[in-house]
């Protein structure tokens, strides 16, 4: 009976250990992307202070393709240097993304064979530009509703 109890404990703890390992690997890869140097393509007027407010609407893809990679979007984002980024999601989801406590999402992404685009480039931008605000744009309780 004691042997069955030990086997049961081992079998139940195995998925937890695997999940922790996968989350660690995912976050290490994300940290490596965030820490990469970027190609700066500064606009000559980017150093000028102007009273104008510019709004850039940047369409993205959810996952990298053969011709569209994360660094393409990051380099563009870095070039326009926004002070506010609106992220698709409710306030709770955006807080979890910014603090990297969206563990369920990370676990799902870790098992996908393709690389996500939006979240990694925003996290990388925030790491290199801590003055930038990350705000949600989505109707609250959307996830709960669906």
List keywords for this structure.
single chain; mainly alpha; elongated
Radius of gyration: 19 Å
Strand content: 5-15%
Into which percent range does the helicity of residues fall?
A: 40-55%
* Ends distance: 45 Å
The SSE string, one letter per element, is HHEHHHEH
Quaternary organisation: single chain
Mean pLDDT figure: 84
**How many E strands?**
2
Characterization of the model:
With 146 residues, this protein is mainly α. It contains 6 helices and 2 strands. It has helices spanning 2-35, 70-80, 91-99, 103-111, 118-128, 142-145; strands at 84-88, 133-137. Helix 1 packs across helix 5 (118-128) and helix 2 crosses helix 5 (118-128). The radius of gyration is 19 Å and the shape is elongated. Mean pLDDT is 84; it is low at 41-45.
Break the fold down into its secondary structure elements and pairings.
Blueprint: H1 2-35, H2 70-80, E1 84-88, H3 91-99, H4 103-111, H5 118-128, E2 133-137, H6 142-145
Helix pairs in contact: 1-4, 1-5, 2-5
Q: What's a quick, concise take on this entry?
A:
The chain is mostly helical. It has helices at 2-35, 70-80, 91-99, 103-111, 118-128, 142-145; strands spanning 84-88, 133-137.
């Amino acid at each position: 009976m004691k042997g069955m109890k030990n086997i049961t404990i081992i079998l139940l703890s195995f998925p937890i250990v695997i999940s922790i390992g996968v989350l660690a690997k995912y976050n290490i890869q994300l940290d490596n992307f965030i820490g990469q140097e970027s190609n700066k393509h500064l606009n000559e007027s980017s150093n000028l202070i102007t009273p104008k407010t510019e709004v850039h609407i940047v369409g993205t893809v959810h996952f990298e393709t053969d011709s569209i990679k994360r660094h393409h979007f990051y380099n563009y984002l870095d070039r326009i240097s926004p002070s506010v980024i609106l992220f698709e999601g409710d306030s709770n989801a955006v807080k979890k993304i910014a603090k990297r406590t969206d563990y369920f999402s990370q676990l799902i992404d870790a098992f996908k064979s393709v690389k996500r685009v939006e979240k990694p480039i925003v996290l990388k931008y925030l790491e290199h530009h801590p003055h930038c605000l990350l705000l949600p744009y989505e109707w609250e309780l959307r996830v709960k509703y669906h």
